[in-house]
Amino acid sequence: MIFEIIKSEGISHNSYFLGSQGEAAIIDPRRDVDIYLELARKNDISIRYIFETHRNEDYTIGSLELTKYVDAKILHGSKLDFKYGTKIVDGDTFKLGSLELEVLETPGHTYESISILVKDKNTENPMMVFVGDVLFAGEVGRVDFFGEEKIPETASLLYESIHEKILPLGDHVIVCPAHGAGSICGAQIND
C-alpha cells in the first residue's frame, strides 16, 4: 500500500494519495495537481478514483484539473447537485488493488459530506477513514454554513455522523482529516 499526505501550507489543507497494486485514489485534491501526477509516475501507478468528501468553500478543489491528465472517476456525495462527477451513497464500495473503499454518508459540516473507509480485502478490517471536515485533531467540523437557523439541524447531523459512523470503527482506525491547525473549518484544530 502507498499512502501519502499532501499538505497545502497557508490554508492547512490535507489531501491524500492512496495506492495499491497499480491503482490509486486521490482524496480531496488541491488545484495544483502536479504532485499527484508525480507520485503516480514515481510509483508506476494509475489514478483511478478522485473522491471529494464535501463541497469546499476554503480552497478550489483540483478534481477537474486532475482529470485533464488522468482517466479517473470523480466521486462525491449525493445530497448536492454537482455539475460534474458521479454521486455516491452510503455503502457504495470501490476496489483499489487489495483495498476496498467504502462510502459512509457523514452529513453535518455540509449535507453531502462523505467519509471514505479503507479496508484490506483480505481481512476486511477497517484500517483508516478519510473524514473530510467531519472530524479533526481536537475539533469537529463547523456547522454554521447554512445560516443560524440551520445550526441545530446540522449540529445534530454532525453528532450522529461522528457517534454512529466514525467512532464505532474503533480506536485502531487511522482518522485522516482534510485540514490541520490554522484552517477556518474549525476553531481549535490541532496538527
In which order are the strands of the major sheet placed? Answer: 1-2-3-4-5-6
Number of helices: 3
Using the 3D structure, state the CATH architecture.
4-Layer Sandwich
Q: According to CATH, what is the topology?
A: Metallo-beta-lactamase, Chain A
Q: How confident overall, as mean pLDDT? A: 87
Which sheet architecture does the biggest sheet show?
6 strands, mixed
List unreliable stretches of 5+ residues: none
General shape:
globular
What is the name of the CATH class? Alpha Beta
Describe this structure in words.
- This protein is an alpha/beta fold and 191 residues long.
- It has a single domain (2-177), classed as Ribonuclease Z/Hydroxyacylglutathione hydrolase-like (Metallo-beta-lactamase, Chain A, 4-Layer Sandwich), CATH 3.60.15.
- Helices cover 15% and strands 36% of the residues.
- The protein contains three helices and 13 strands, in the order βββαβαββββββββαβ.
- The chain has helices at 34-42, 63-66, 151-166, and strands at 2-8, 13-20, 23-27, 46-52, 73-77, 86-88, 93-96, 99-105, 114-120, 126-132, 135-136, 139-140, 174-177.
- Strands 1-2-3-4-5-6 form a six-stranded mixed beta sheet, covered by helices on one side.
- The protein is globular and about 50 Å long.
- The chain starts with a strand and ends in a 14-residue tail after the last strand.
